[in-house]
Amino acid sequence: MLKSHSCGELSKKDVGAKVTLAGWVDRRRDHGGLIFIDLRDREGIVQVVFNPETAKLCHEIASEMRNEYVVRVSGEVALRPQGTENPKLPTGDVEVIAHNTDILNPSKTPPFYINEDIEVEESLRLKYRYLDLRRTRMKENLLLRHRVVKFMRDFLDAKGFIEVETPILIKSTPEGARDYLVPSRLYPGKFYALPQSPQQLKQLLMVAGVEKYFQIARCFRDEDTRADRQPEFTQLDLEMSFVEEEDILNLLEELFTSLVEIIKPEMRVIKPFPRLTYAEAMEHYGTDKPDLRFGLELGDLTDIVAQSDFSIFRSAIADGGKVKGICAPGCGTYTRSQLDELNKLVQSLGAEGLVTISLGTAGGNLNALTIEMVKSVAARFLTLDQIKQMAERLGAKTGDLLLIVAGNPKLVDMTLSELRQEMGHRLKLADPNLFVFAFIQNFPLLRWDDETGRWESEHHPFTAPWDEDVPLLDTTPEKVHGKHYDVICNGYEIGGGSLRIHTSELQRKIFKLLGYNDEEVEERFGHMLEAFQYGAPPHGGIALGLDRIVMLLAGEETIREVIAFPKNQSAADLTFDAPSPVTEEQLAELHLRLRNE
RNA sequence: GGCCCCGUGGUGUAGCGGACUAACAUGCCACCCUGUCACGGUGGAGAUCGGGGGUUCGAAUCCCCCCGGGGUCGCCA
Fold first, then answer.
1. Residue nearest to nucleotide B26 (CA to C1')
2. Residues 504-563 of chain A sitting with CB below 7 angstroms of strand B
3. ipTM given for this complex
4. Which of A122, A296, A519, A561 has minimal Cβ neighbours within 10 Å of its Cβ?
């Protein structure tokens, strides 16, 4: 090794030791005489002193050093002179008196600061990701991710799971997300696909008798990105045989609880994890992944306003819509422009608009509300009694602000869910030191797709229906529940899983219901149906979004901050400038010709 | 594909129709400086204000188009 110690590990106990360090120049302080170099490596920073009187040559070399030069220093660890200790540095009690030094590699001036944690345009960071990763924030995120994965491996190993790798080159399944395709050289006109998840493979591992499987699995989906979605991402994928839903939920609860305890002990977790049905989540929060760190629950006001004279409400209801709202506590004093802002938000989400009802400017008992205190465009179409009923249902006091949206039920829920999130943020209702994990259960198995005119799986076609609902598959498929569950945390879906179908008869029936004819079923899923005929055990599992979990633990806003080399919003890799054209020879070998478009 | 936001020296920002010959901080270069630690001091270089077109006597500033980046809806079984 070119070094004997790490910069960050030195302390009083090393005083007198002869050490050789190697790392990057974090900062240089040149006093004309003495030169101080803050030398940085992965473990931390230590101050090196170059004295022209005791080490002339050494001092001359040091005067050439600039930020991010890679240098090596030999010298003696010394206690700093009294009064010059630096309490801000973990190594601040000591310094290294340089006896010998050399520049291993100079550096151009970096395009942005390495030694300061200030915001830099993300595209620049991504182009020079190798420099960005030197910064404290990114270094810590990489370390955190390592520790999270290590914890998961150890945890599951202790529970008897074994890690199995599954192929990256696999078969395209046109349902679900768009596949990334890989052309085959040996089979002209045929393609592999990259896995959207190892779903079918892990089920086959259950048929294989693995019983408890997990994998840190890379997954690929050719869909548009989001702050929490990348074209390639990582799942903690796991599957168990002979389990019931409760077994899996208990495992997850233990996994997440001890994960936070060990990795982020300063954060709190609510235990046991709340459980909501899908219907409850939609009714109270308008989304299946609510941030449960605060209330602000949605209330359905349809029945109250159905007889009102307010045409916006009445026509929405007449068109089969509904009217729901939330209460923003203490926001009765919101100004016109603040209300306009909220209205704009609502409209940008596709809703017609937002009806606001201010319940006066001072907080107090609802009984004291008078019609004079109420400010709203709807006020003259509503009775005081109706307003009080609405306020009561939304848990409002005087001085609060009611935010009401009318229209298509799905749109109303979506809009209010976003409004709730926005108000929660504005009013700082979410405790930043709290993780509220929760399970969402009782999802519908199927969803009718108007565009394709057929049933689609809410989760995926391998999810088992509730036993008692199986007969409904033939009559009212929309009423069938699936043995599916999601894990959510602070407003993010961080995982979803299910108990699977393990008999070929039921699996075939589901495929049929999804609109596949026998031939298509055979071509696409024949391998699964056949496998299920060779003693497939009952099984189930879950896939957890590792990137999102690490993002939450790191307190970051996007998963890009916890991925070493992420793609940008346009799915490009700015470090490598991928994707890129390939040569005509490469195309020919793959039997491909580009279309002129 | 739709909607919203952003683009000014290397970096981060200010300026939002005339006093801009574009400001501030930091970085960079040179010189001075032996106890600093975001060292300090003096001086210097560095920007056709993302690109194109238009409005105007006059555009970094207003309008249109394009490009790049971010957020989001659709999409993500």
1. A113
2. 558, 560
3. 0.93
4. A519
Q: How far apart are CA A41 and CA A23, in angstroms?
A: 5
Does residue A397 sit within a domain? yes
User: Which phi and psi angles does A489 have, rounded to 5°?
Assistant: -155, 120
* Protein-to-nucleotide distance from the CA of A282 to the C1' of B76, whole angstroms: 20
How many domains in chain A?
Answer: 3
A171 CB below 7 A from strand B atoms:
no
A192 and A305, same domain (yes or no): no
The CATH number of whichever domain residue A350 belongs to comes to 3.30.1360.30
Q: State yes or no: pLDDT of A411 exceeds 90.
A: yes
Q: What is the distance between the alpha carbons of residues A485 and A573, in angstroms, rounded to a whole number?
A: 34
Question: Which CATH number belongs to the domain containing residue A18 in this structure?
Answer: 2.40.50.140
CA dihedral of residues A229, A232, A235, A238 (deg, nearest 10): 130
**3-class DSSP assignment, residue A356:** strand
Beta bridge partners of A405: A324
CA of A239 to C1' of B46 (A): 60
* CA pair distance A375, A364, nearest whole angstrom: 16
Checking each nucleotide's C1' against the CA of A570, the nearest proves to be B69
What number is the average pLDDT over the span A324-329?
A: 96
